[in-house]
Design a protein that fits this description.
- The complex is a heterodimer of chains A (423) and B (152).
- Chain A folds into two domains: 153 residues, Aspartate Aminotransferase, domain 1, CATH 3.90.1150; 256 residues, Aspartate Aminotransferase, domain 2.
- Chain A has 15 helices and 17 strands.
- Chain A is 40% helix and 16% strand.
- The longest helix of chain A has 21 residues.
- Chain B has one domain: Sufe protein. Chain: A (Alpha-Beta Complex).
- A four-stranded mixed β-sheet of chain B has the order 3-2-1-4, covered by helices on one side.
- The chains are: A alpha/beta (423), B alpha+beta (152).
- At the A-B interface, α13 and α15 of A face α1 of B.
C-alpha cells in the first residue's frame, strides 16, 4: 500500500488543515522534537499519559519561580498569590466541565483517588448491605477495585453491564440490571482500551429513573470532546490532569453540591477543618472538606493552563482532527493482513487496539519502539475487557491532538517491520 | 534493525513458533508458576525430579517470543541435569542477563548465547528470566511457588 500524502489523507478523512494546523500545534510540545534511537519520536500513547505543551510547563515553572507558598494559610503576599492561582485553576475546571459552582470541583491526585473518594465517602455512608453498584465490562481497574473494596467492607453487590463484539455498551442489558437495589452506577465515558464512547446521557437518565446516582469516569473523554456535566446531569464526574496535557498527580472530581455536602471527609488532616479539639472536630465546607493536607498546588495551576490550552485550540476542532486521524488509521491498519482490531464501536475516540497474528503485543511494542514509535502493549488495566475477547493483551495506539497523518503512516510501516521479523 | 535482529534471532523465533517440551510430563512431581502480571507473561514449569536428577521437564503458559523461547531453550538443556547443575546454570544465565558475565564457554552456555541480544533491551530481561526463576523455585520446592520477575 502506498501512503497518501498528508494533505490528501487529511482531505479524504475530513480534517481541514486550514482549521487545525497540526504542525503548529506540535511546535507547542517540546518533547515531540526529540529523536528516539535516532528516529523522530512518534508518540502514540496519549491515552496512558499525554505530553505537555510549553504553556503547561511554563505555568508550573512560573508557580515555583514567582508565586509559590502554601495556600489558604499565610497572611503574606506570596501565599495570597498562590491561593488566588490555585482557586483560579478550580474555576477553570468548573467552566471546563460547566459545573454550576466552583465548590463542586475537588482537586484530587487523579481519577483513581476521586473514585476511591466517592466509593469510600459516599458509598461508605449511604450504601448498605445488599445494595447494588452497576459497572460496565469496559471499566479500567480504577473503576472496579474501589467498588470491590467497598463490597468487602459493606457487603454490597457489584453488577456488570456486558459489551458486544464491537465493544459497545449494551443499553438494554443495562436496563435489565437496574432495580430497586441499584444505588449507584459507575461507568466510563470512553473506554481506554477500546475507545468506545458510552451513551452516558441515557445511562444517567435510566439510573436516575431508578433512584440511583451516577459517577462517570471521564479520563479518556475530556481530552477528546467537550463535556457538560449539567447537560449530562451526572452526579459525579472525574478526570486526570495528565491525560489532558496537564501535570501528573493532579485531577478533579466534580460532584453535585448537595451530595458533596452530605458526605463525610475522605481523609483527615489540615486544611479540611473548621475547628479541631481532641473532643470534637468540625469539618470545613466543600470543597476544602475533601482536600486534606497541602495539595499539588503547582499541579492544579498546570492543569488550569492545560485547560486554557485545549479550549484555546477549540475542542470541536481537536475532536474533528482526531476523528479524521482515527478514520485514516482504521483504514490503513484494517488493510494489513493478520492484523485484528478490537473495539469497532460506531461511536469511538481515537484509540486503536489491535493484535498481529503470531506476534505477541510486547514483541510488537519492542519492534515499534526501535522505530521511534511509542505504543502501549498489554492489558491496559482492563483485564475484564481482554478476557471478554479471550486475549492476554493488545497493542494500543492512541492519538492526541498533536498526532499527524504521517505518524499513522509510520505506524503502518512499523507494523510491516513486525511482520517481516515474525513472518 | 540490527539489534532487533540480534534480539529476534531465527532460533528464538523458531522456539517461539514451536516451543519444545510444551507439556506437563506424565510423572511430574514438582511444579512452580511464574507470572508477570504487568506484561501478561505466564509460565508453569513441571519437573520429574528423581534422585536429584531432572528426568523430565515441561512447561506451559503464554507470553511474548522472548519468554516462550527462553522457557523452551531452558527445558532442552535442563533435561537430564542434576538439580545442582541446573541451579548453577540458572545463576550463570542470570549473571549473563544482568551483564555481569559473558555467556559462552560451554555447550549449554553457547546455546543460551542466542538470548544475549536481550541485554540491549532492559525492559525485556524480565521476560527472558521468568522461566528460569520459576525453574529455580520448582527445584527448591519453595513454599512460595508464584514467581515474578517484575519489580514494579
Amino acid at each position: 500500500m502506498t501512503a497518501m500524502g498528508r494533505s490528501q489523507a487529511a482531505l479524504t478523512f475530513g480534517s481541514n488543515l486550514s482549521d487545525f494546523d497540526v504542525e503548529r500545534v506540535r511546535a507547542d510540545f517540546p518533547i515531540l522534537s526529540k529523536r528516539i534511537y535516532d528516529r523522530p519520536l512518534v508518540f502514540l500513547d496519549s491515552a496512558a499519559s499525554a505530553q505537555k505543551p510549553q504553556a503547561v510547563i511554563d505555568a508550573v515553572r512560573h508557580c515555583y519561580e514567582d508565586e509559590y507558598a502554601n495556600i489558604h494559610r499565610g497572611v503574606y503576599y506570596l501565599s495570597a498569590q498562590a491561593t488566588l492561582a490555585y482557586e483560579a485553576a478550580r474555576a477553570k475546571v468548573q467552566r471546563f466541565l460547566n459545573a454550576r459552582e466552583d465548590r463542586e470541583i475537588i482537586f484530587t491526585r487523579g481519577a483513581t483517588e476521586a473514585i476511591n473518594l466517592v466509593a469510600s465517602s459516599y458509598g461508605g455512608t449511604f450504601l448498605k448491605e445488599g445494595d447494588e453498584v452497576v459497572l460496565s465490562a469496559l471499566e479500567h481497574h480504577s473503576n472496579i477495585v474501589p467498588w470491590q473494596l467497598l463490597r468487602d467492607r459493606m457487603g454490597i453487590t457489584i453488577r456488570v453491564v456486558p459489551i458486544n463484539d464491537a465493544g459497545e455498551f449494551l443499553l438494554d442489558e443495562y436496563e435489565k440490571l437496574l432495580g430497586p437495589r441499584t444505588k449507584l452506577v459507575a461507568v466510563t465515558h470512553i473506554s481506554n482500551a477500546l475507545g468506545t464512547v458510552t451513551p452516558v446521557a441515557e445511562i444517567t437518565r435510566l439510573a436516575h429513573a431508578h433512584g440511583a446516582i451516577v459517577l462517570l469516569d471521564g479520563c479518556q473523554a475530556v481530552p477528546h470532546q467537550a463535556v457538560d456535566v449539567q447537560t449530562l446531569d451526572c452526579d459525579f464526574y472525574t478526570f486526570s490532569g495528565h491525560k489532558l496535557y496537564g501535570p501528573s498527580g493532579i485531577g478533579a472530581l466534580y460532584g453535585k453540591a448537595d451530595l458533596l455536602q452530605a458526605m463525610p471527609p475522605y481523609q483527615g488532616g489540615g486544611d479540611m477543618i473548621r475547628s479541631v479539639s481532641f473532643e470534637k472536630t468540625e469539618y470545613a465546607d466543600i470543597p476544602q472538606r475533601f482536600e486534606a493536607g497541602t495539595p499539588h498546588i503547582a499541579g492544579a495551576i498546570g492543569l488550569g493552563a492545560a485547560i486554557d490550552y485545549v479550549t484555546a485550540l477549540d475542542q470541536e476542532k481537536i475532536a474533528a482532527h482526531e476523528q479524521a486521524l482515527l478514520a485514516y488509521a482504521t483504514d490503513r491498519l484494517s488493510g494489513i493482513p493478520g492484523l485484528r482490531l478490537f473495539g469497532t464501536a460506531r461511536e469511538k475516540a481515537s484509540i486503536l487496539s489491535f493484535t498481529i497474528d503470531g506476534a505477541h503485543p510486547h514483541d510488537v511494542g519492542t519492534i515499534l519502539d526501535r522505530a521511534g514509535i511509542a505504543v502501549r502493549a498489554g492489558h491496559h488495566c482492563t483485564q475484564p475487557v481482554m478476557d471478554r475477547f479471550g486475549i492476554a493483551g493488545t497493542v494500543r495506539a492512541s492519538f492526541g491532538l498533536y498526532n499527524s497523518f504521517d505518524e499513522v503512516d509510520a505506524l503502518a510501516a512499523g507494523i510491516e517491520q513486525v511482520k517481516e521479523i515474525f513472518g | 534493525m540490527s539489534d532487533l535482529r540480534d534480539l529476534y534471532q531465527e532460533v528464538i523465533l523458531d522456539h517461539n513458533r514451536e516451543p519444545r517440551n510444551f507439556c506437563c510430563p506424565p510423572n511430574a512431581n514438582r511444579e512452580a508458576r511464574g507470572d508477570n502480571p504487568l506484561c501478561g507473561d505466564k509460565v508453569t514449569i513441571y519437573l520429574t525430579l528423581e534422585d536429584g536428577v531432572v528426568k523430565d521437564i515441561g512447561f506451559q503458559g503464554r507470553g511474548c517470543a522472548i519468554s516462550v523461547a527462553s522457557a523452551s531453550l531452558m527445558t532442552e538443556m535442563i533435561k537430564g541435569k542434576t538439580a545442582a547443575e541446573a541451579q548453577a546454570l540458572f545463576r550463570r544465565f542470570q549473571a549473563s542477563m544482568t551483564g555481569e558475565e559473558e555467556v559462552g564457554g560451554t555447550d549449554d552456555l553457547d546455546k543460551l548465547a542466542v538470548l544475549s541480544g536481550v541485554r540491549e533491551f532492559p525492559m525485556r530481561v524480565k521476560c527472558a528470566t521468568l522461566s528460569w526463576h520459576t525453574l529455580a523455585a520448582a527445584l527448591e520446592d519453595a513454599a512460595e511457588k508464584k514467581i515474578s520477575t517484575e519489580t514494579a
